[in-house]
Amino acid sequence: MRSLDPAKAARHLAGVVALLCVTAVWGTTFPLVKDMITRLPVADLFAVRYVASAVLLLAVRPAVLRGLGSRAWWAGVGLGLVYGAALVTQTYGLTTLPSSVSGFVTGSYVVMTPLLALVWFRTRITVRTWTAVGLAVAGLAAFTWMAGGDGGPVPAVGLALTLASAAFYAVHVVALSRWSRPEEAYALTVVQIGTMACVLTVAALPGGVAVPASAGDWAGLVYLATVAGALSFLTQTWAQAHVPATTAAVVMSVEPLWATAFAVLLYGEAAGWSLLVGGGCVLVAMVLVAVPARAAPASPPARTLTPVPGGDAP
After folding, report:
1. What is the DSSP string of 110-155?
2. What is the pTM for the complete model shown?
3. What span, in angstroms and rounded, lies between the C-alpha atoms of 306 and 261?
4. Which segments constitute the EamA domain (predicted)?
């Protein structure tokens, strides 16, 4: 097996660490968003959040889109539309599904990602990577069901919407790893978030776009728009320029575990077996994809009397 050169391996590991930090930030948003949507409609909260993120990014670098090529524009718009569709379908699915079912079904994008990469871009998936995918799925299943899910039948419409959301997330992860370039990460982030802001604002318009009414909610919105919005998206876009799609999906599968860990640390919830077993599986999966495989020892060249025409040099 051919290994990454040291510089590329270092960038790969830096990308994995960056994605892990992003999932930690996203994990902190679960209790915040859960609280804020009791006072604001979901679509309205997301619309205001991403409009603010786009404005902030453009305020920091107002000329970032100047001279941006058509490839990056089309890629950013496409990625923003896909991610916006994922958020909208996931949100509407969540209104009819138990939260445990929604979390597990959404996490199925971990399996969809390598399959999509294989079909779409003919990306070779190693046995080691498939093992990591299997461990991540097992960890998500243990985390979901050992924690105790809600009983009762699962609505077909909600399930279909959530599966569609998982598929959109998989498309976004695969396409971002394929299209993101380090030098265009900031501009691509602006186009993505700007597109998402437009999509979510349109989704929120029928009932009118509501904004926070208290200083506490505005503070929460600022955090969602800056750290958990603009900064996290920028970090993800840069990281996926150095990390394969399947690796990114496995690393990001730790997000619900971060959410539970923060609930344990900040809100005193008990750390049950679901967190220990599920988290252990996902952590092992991350180690498998985070550390590049070593090259196999080179075999001594075979002794031949004549060179092979067109053959590779030993």
Report:
1. HHHHHHHHHHHH-----HHHHHHHHHHHHHHHHHHHHT----SPPP
2. 0.80
3. 64
4. 14-142, 158-290
Domain residues for the domain of 12 are: 6-290
pLDDT digits (tens, 9 = 90+) for 6-15: 888 889 999 9
For the stretch 221-238, pLDDT in tens is 999 999 999 999 999 999
How many structural domains does the chain have?
1
Lowest mean pLDDT among 42-46, 178-182, 263-267, 285-289: 263-267
The answer as to whether 308 is a domain residue is no
Query: Cα 180 vs. chain centroid, distance in angstroms?
Result: 14
